Amino acid sequence: MTEQSKHTPGTWTANGQFINGPNGVTIAMTFREGGSHCQPEHRISYEEELANAHLIVSAPKLLKALRDMLHHFCGCGEQTQTDAEVMREAREAIAQTEGERHE
Length: 103
Description:
Largest sheet: 3 strands, antiparallel
Strand order of the largest sheet: 1-2-3
Number of helices: 2
Structural class: mainly alpha
Radius of gyration: 17 Å
Number of domains: 1
Helix content: 40-55%
Number of strands: 3
Strand content: 5-15%
Distance between the termini: 24 Å
């Protein structure tokens, strides 16, 4: 399925709070403090900040996995992947979102 997206193409990587595109340019950042006064009640933990970074980084892979699943299971066009391949791709995208590697 070849749908063109307007966002920076993946693969994205996280380097601490910085989210980098494939060319190494920072495309997003996560923050531990929010609100206009940075009050303690608006802070998140470092672990939560890293989890947010993993979620952002996985967005292109999640989008591709969802598009491929729709294409595969709706019966649209020629089937280019097996059920197992489509499910593996989805599992890998979920694992990346959760900050894990899935082999």
